[in-house]
Specification:
With about 575 residues, this protein is an alpha/beta fold. Helices cover about 25% and strands about 20% of the residues. The protein starts with 13 loop residues before the first helix and ends with a helix. It binds adenosine-5'-triphosphate and magnesium ion (MG).
């Protein structure tokens, strides 16, 4: 791939500006970025922002992006996560090619470098417990206190560190710490821990190690080993940068990556902490990592969000230097924008009400032409069956309609989309007084949806032929949390919404929806976008509601444009 300016993006954020400048001045010949997930959970929409940035930059500037697992904590990491992360990055449309790495690939080299720090008096073995080390650390206003073990001789440190590796000590008995400055204004420089003892099997290195490097000791050096040019990370690592630079300055690293921080994504009505997401899964508040209410990539994929919409969203929100909260409506807007163009239209009735057309011949079936997607003329048309017994949406009828309810009511005429005009003549109720059936008449002159005399009903409804409809389960989703800032008042679980999932079992679909592939998204006319779930079987499809049709973000945009 070339690095000429024409490949560069049209609009540059501050990170892309830095990279463009480094290529222009020849500081770097090519850009190398990386996405460095810790395999201790599934990726979420916040990670998607980082993926789109790192892989996007590499693609735009003709460089490359590595996928590197920061697998330094074997007690929390699992193969399942490693696999899901790879699948998710691919699904988002990115490819690391042959550049798949693991921090664990570098365990031997990191160990050697740690030994070098010990030899040069820049690291020591500390026998204090984790609690004692915390107690010695000091605060933002008070300096830390030195450990009594800080001035051990290099030989003793070397011996102890080697025995730590050999497995002579139990977990937590000792750590290796860098010897930097316990009085530093930056707490990260107060003799940070480099290695801890963990007698735990690692998903990749098995039982080869019982000491593991900390994230801080592994991360920057892994970047250097891979010749990463721009190490892009979220703002919470800004205070760690001096420590990374200390390592780079004190170790014989093969390159000096530049770390640049950007604001992490926060989304309203959403939690994006892996710890909290894990808790939701483990405690059964959701039906797994890929529950369609989860902000995980696998959750939103199962919900029916297309990868293109996630990339659009990442571009729309851009890259900033200051944290903020993005309105969840913006993400939904991006999803609707893609689905409106792509999703075929179909008929489905979620809460059916029977309609009998008294003047329509018994046994007659007509096949009427229905447009697949008005946004896409190439999508063509399909046929839908029309017959004497139909189903409409229960909420499209009111016996005693208020003003502004224009849909079906006694004595009123409406249009059945692609079908005929029908007029409600009689309401049939069960002994409990509930409406169970409508007796209607149809006007044979209005076939296809237009009247020769030009009259136009105020409402157009979707419908199904009762004899042809396919039964289905439909799962309706709403925000998982009741407030935009879950947990702001304490326990985030207290803000879980009891209405986030509603399962409808008596739904009916047009027959063309049978045989759709898992993950396919269609628009149920007038209802929203729906995605075929993997819980489906051929006899009984299950659909997830991706989103309703209403687009609050588009409305906000239109309003602010009108006020300008
Ligand atoms: P958590 O805070 O939930 O534990 P994490 O940041 O520790 O997540 P990692 O697996 O270390 O999770 O993240 C991999 C990369 O994704 C990191 O570079 C991190 O900065 C980035 N990332 C994580 N969360 C977000 C977010 N909300 N917005 C943007 N980037 C993120
Ligand atoms: Mg992290």
């Amino acid at each position: 791939m070339s690095t000429d300016a024409s490949a560069a993006p049209a609009r540059l954020d501050f990170i892309r500006e830095i990279i463009a400048e480094d290529l222009r001045t020849g500081k770097h010949q090519t850009v190398i970025t990386r996405f460095p997930p810790e395999p201790n959970g599934y990726l979420h929409i916040g990670h998607a922002k980082s993926i789109c940035l790192n892989f996007g930059v590499a693609r735009e500037f003709g460089g490359r992006c590595h996928l590197r697992f920061d697998d330094t904590n074997p007690t929390k990491e699992e193969m399942e996560y490693i696999e899901s992360i790879q699948a998710d990055v691919r699904w988002l449309g990115f490819d690391w090619g042959e550049h798949l790495y693991h921090a664990s690939d570098y365990f031997e080299r990191l160990y050697e470098w740690a030994v070098q720090l010990v030899q040069t008096g820049k690291a020591y073995v500390d026998d204090l417990s984790a609690d004692e080390i915390r107690g010695h650390r000091g605060t933002l206003t008070e300096p830390g206190r030195e450990s009594p073990y800080r001035n051990r001789a290099a030989e003793e440190n070397l011996d102890l560190f080697a025995r730590m590796r050999k497995g002579e000590f139990p977990d937590g008995a000792r750590v290796l710490r860098a010897k930097i400055d316990m009085a530093s204004g930056n707490i990260n420089l107060r003799d940070p821990v480099l290695y801890r003892i963990l007698h735990a099997s690692h998903p990749r290195t098995g039982d080869a190690w019982c000491i593991y490097p900390t994230y801080d000791f592994a991360h920057g050096q892994s970047d250097a080993i891979e010749h990463i040019t721009h190490s892009l990370c979220t703002l919470e690592f800004e205070d760690h940068r001096p420590l990374y630079e200390w390592f780079l300055a004190n170790l014989p690293v093969p390159s000096r990556p530049r770390q640049i921080e950007f604001a992490r994504l926060n989304l309203s009505y959403t939690v994006l902490s892996k710890r909290r997401l894990l808790q939701l899964v483990k405690e059964g508040h959701v039906r797994g990592w890929d529950d369609p209410r989860m902000p995980t990539i696998s959750g939103i994929r199962r919900r029916g969000y297309p990868p293109e919409a996630i990339r659009d969203f990442a571009e729309l929100i851009g890259i900033a230097k200051r944290d903020g909260v993005v309105d969840a409506a913006m993400l939904e807007h991006c999803v609707r924008d893609v689905l409106n163009r792509k999703a075929p239209r179909r008929f489905a009735v979620l809460r059916p009400l029977k309609v009998v057309l008294e003047n329509y011949p018994e046994g007659k079936v007509e096949r009427l032409s229905a447009v697949n997607n008005p946004e896409d003329p190439g999508a063509g048309a399909r046929e839908v069956e029309f017959s004497r017994e139909l189903l409409i949406e229960r909420e499209d009828f009111m016996e005693d309609p208020p003003r502004k309810f224009y849909r079906l009511a006694p004595g009123r005429e409406v249009r059945l989309r692609y079908g005929y005009f029908v007029t409600c003549q009689k309401v049939v109720k069960d002994p409990a007084g509930e409406v169970v059936e409508l007796r209607c008449t149809y006007d044979p002159a209005t076939r296809g949806g237009d009247a020769p005399d030009g009259r136009r009903p105020k409402a157009t409804l979707h419908w199904l032929s009762a004899a042809h409809a396919v039964p289905a389960e439909v799962r309706l989703y709403d925000n998982l949390f009741t407030r935009p800032d879950p947990g702001a008042d304490g326990d985030f679980l207290a803000d879980l919404s009891p209405k986030s999932l509603e399962v409808l079992t008596g739904c009916l679909l047009e027959p063309s929806l049978r045989g759709l592939g898992t993950g396919s998204v269609v628009q149920f006319e007038r209802l929203g976008y729906f995605c075929l779930d993997r819980d489906s079987d051929p006899e009984r499809p299950v659909f997830n509601r991706t989103l309703t049709l209403r687009d609050t973000w588009a409305k906000i945009q239109a309003k602010s444009a009108a006020n300008e």
